[in-house]
């Protein structure tokens, strides 16, 4: 056989099917979870980074193009993305990934939502009317979402279903071991009292027995005001809180100001992967959150 014919034959040979499933995640944690289950058989993309407020991003044309090509869209939901996702879905014109279809997965449907007020009209500016959407701060919630995500990936790409099923089982086994280790390590955090910038941490707090005593935002979604901050100063100047917590995308000035006035240390925690140099994947995200809390507790 001539070299040319051989090259042609090789070119025509079926190649192993890689990256069969296109996953569009609204947040980095869900992209990471899809990667953990899909390995080389998925291509994932996250619409937001840890340095952006997932409540508010622009529905850019590049995002519309990604949704158009997606086989599966996974988002936290509970109205976290209501300011931009409906617009993306409408413009992308991809029926398969519309809510209600197999290609759309709302992660927060699979966990017990905290803070549900039933305020459907977002009265008073509350941007969490359907319950708190920041579910990724409890690793049990990540496990609860992994199952339906894996099932959905198997249904959408049955050819690689066996791989997804095996990877999902491996991930859950390793994840459960990590949860046990985190829970043991976090024992000293029980009873810690925190003031948080936004209501971003309610799932972490419930998980570890941390008490949230106030927020810098008077209502979730309303930026901290001078009036509210001076009220908090009076309330906490003689104690009552151990830390003031914020995430990388939040304005550092309100927590720095309150820290200076009250002497309560302020603390940066990664809300998702990429929020700090240390939080590089799902495992190191929780490692880093706990390390930062425990180090701050030690200094306290
Ligand atoms: Zn929020």
Structural notes for this entry:
The structure is a single chain. With 300 residues, the chain is an alpha/beta fold. It has two domains: 21-182, Rossmann fold (3-Layer(aba) Sandwich), CATH 3.40.50; 187-299, Rossmann fold. The chain has helices at residues 3-12, 28-38, 61-69, 85-92, 139-156, 161-185, 202-208, 226-236, 252-262, 282-299; strands spanning 21-25, 42-46, 72-75, 104-106, 193-196, 211-215, 243-246, 266-268. The model has no long low-confidence stretch (mean pLDDT 93).
Keywords:
binds zinc ion; globular; 300 residues; Rossmann fold
- Order of the strands making up the biggest sheet: 2-1-3-4
Supply the number of structural domains.
2
Which class do the helix and strand fractions yield?
Answer: alpha/beta
- Report the β-strand fraction as a percent range: 5-15%
Helicity level: 40-55%
| Largest sheet, strands/sense/barrel | 4 strands, parallel
User: How do the helices and strands follow one another from N- to C-terminus?
Assistant: HEHEHEHEHHEHEHEHEH
In CATH, the architecture of the largest domain is 3-Layer(aba) Sandwich
Name the CATH superfamily classification of the largest domain: Nitrogenase molybdenum iron protein domain
Number of helices: 10
Distance between the termini: 76 Å
- List the bound ligands: zinc ion
| Unreliable spans | none
The CATH first-level class of the largest domain comes to Alpha Beta
Mean pLDDT across every amino acid position? 93
Report the CATH topology name of the largest domain: Rossmann fold
| Number of E-type strands | 8
Radius of gyration: 22 Å
């Amino acid at each position: 056989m001539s070299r040319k014919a051989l090259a042609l034959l090789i070119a025509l040979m079926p190649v192993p099917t890689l990256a069969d499933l296109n996953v569009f995640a609204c947040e980095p944690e869900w992209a990471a979870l899809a990667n953990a289950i899909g390995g080389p058989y998925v291509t994932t993309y996250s619409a937001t980074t840890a340095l952006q407020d997932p409540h508010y991003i622009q529905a850019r044309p590049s995002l519309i193009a990604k949704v158009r090509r997606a086989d599966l869209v996974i988002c936290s939901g509970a109205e976290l993305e209501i300011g931009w996702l409906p617009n993306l879905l409408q413009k992308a014109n991809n029926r398969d990934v519309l809510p209600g279809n197999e290609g759309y997965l709302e992660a927060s449907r699979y966990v017990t939502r905290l803070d549900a007020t039933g305020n459907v009209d977002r009265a008073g500016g509350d941007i969490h009317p359907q319950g708190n959407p920041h579910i990724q701060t409890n690793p049990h919630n990540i496990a609860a979402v992994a199952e339906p995500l894996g099932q959905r990936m198997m249904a959408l790409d049955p050819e690689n279903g066996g791989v997804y099923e095996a990877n999902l089982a491996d991930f859950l086994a390793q994840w459960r071991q990590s949860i046990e280790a985190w829970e043991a390590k976090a024992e000293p955090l029980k009873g810690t009292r925190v003031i948080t910038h936004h209501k971003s941490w309610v799932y972490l707090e419930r998980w570890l027995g941390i008490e949230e005593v106030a927020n810098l935002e008077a209502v979730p979604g309303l930026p901290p005001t001078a009036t509210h901050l001076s009220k908090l100063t009076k309330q906490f100047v003689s104690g009552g809180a151990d830390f003031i917590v914020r995430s990388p995308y939040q304005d550092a000035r309100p927590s720095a100001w309150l820290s200076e006035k009250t002497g309560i240390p302020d603390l940066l925690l990664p809300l998702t992967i990429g929020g700090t140099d240390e939080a590089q994947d799902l495992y190191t995200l929780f490692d880093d959150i706990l390390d930062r809390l425990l180090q701050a507790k030690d200094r306290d």
